[in-house]
């Protein structure tokens, strides 16, 4: 069974594994670099890392159209259930894991704020470690660098997806340090080039990853896929 990661621009990813489609932080309709619109994607599960607009914007319409289950920290899962009538939600919290039909999802801490668009508290920002078959994939989501990433990397990671945009998250410099802590086989950049303030030279970043870490970088264009 192979797992395919498709970058839909910004912090949005589609993970396909054994016929299951998992969306992370769908933000498509108002995202300048998105390769498709929200009504063009299918999902069985939608993982939500935190409450900011550029991560939750398209969650409810996709969840309702597809009957997808929203997986998020308790506050955000409850917000989608109560304020957006999303029928299926799984609320969890930092450090917790849940077995789902496609594999295991563990919620990791992220250092970031998390207010929802209507001012509700989104609890704490998070990332995810997905275990699918033999693969372990870490999505740092919106976060700064933190030294506990070395613990997240313990046990081995097939891939790590890190923000490199700077300003709202860690930038290229800290993502190189994060890569050194995580020691994943592959590392992929995200959360950059969406707008001018988070523009980055991904090829220069990839060169630094090759030179300064043991991990292999893969730079995708929005719409591009990586097969694990
Ligand atoms: Ni954010
Ligand atoms: Mn963001």
What would you say this structure looks like, in words?
Helix 5 runs parallel beside helix 6. This protein is of the alpha/beta class. The longest helix is centred in the last third of the chain and has 11 residues. Helices cover 21% and strands 29% of the residues. Strand 5, helix 3 and strand 6 form a beta-alpha-beta unit. A 7-stranded mixed sheet has the order 6-5-4-3-2-1-14, covered by helices on one side. Strands 7-8-9-10-11-12-13 form a 7-stranded mixed sheet. The termini are close together. Bound molecules: nickel (II) ion (NI) and manganese (II) ion. The site of manganese (II) ion (MN) has 7 residues, from helix 1.
Task: Describe the structure using short key phrases.
228 residues; alpha/beta; Metallo-beta-lactamase, Chain A; seven-stranded mixed β-sheet; binds nickel (II) ion; binds manganese (II) ion
């Amino acid at each position: 069974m192979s797992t395919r990661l498709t970058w839909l621009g910004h912090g949005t990813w589609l993970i396909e594994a054994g016929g299951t489609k998992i969306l992370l932080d769908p933000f498509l309709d108002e995202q300048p670099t998105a390769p498709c619109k929200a009504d063009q994607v299918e999902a069985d599960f939608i993982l939500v890392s935190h409450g900011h607009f550029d991560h939750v914007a398209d969650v409810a319409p996709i969840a309702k159209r597809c009957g997808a289950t929203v997986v998020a920290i308790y506050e955000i899962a409850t917000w989608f259930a109560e304020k957006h009538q999303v029928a299926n939600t799984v609320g969890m919290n930092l450090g917790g894991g849940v077995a789902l039909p496609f594999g295991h999802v563990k919620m990791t801490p992220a250092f970031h704020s998390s207010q929802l668009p209507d001012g509700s508290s989104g609890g704490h920002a998070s990332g995810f470690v997905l275990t699918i078959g033999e693969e372990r994939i870490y999505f740092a989501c919106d976060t700064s660098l933190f030294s506990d990433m070395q613990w997240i990397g313990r046990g081995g990671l097939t891939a790590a997806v890190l923000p490199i945009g700077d300003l709202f998250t860690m930038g290229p410099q800290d993502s190189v340090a994060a890569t050194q802590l995580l020691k994943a086989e592959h590392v992929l950049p995200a959360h950059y080039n969406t707008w001018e303030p988070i523009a980055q030279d991904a090829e220069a970043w990839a060169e630094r990853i090759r030179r300064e870490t043991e991990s292999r970088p893969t730079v995708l264009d929005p719409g591009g896929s990586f097969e694990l």
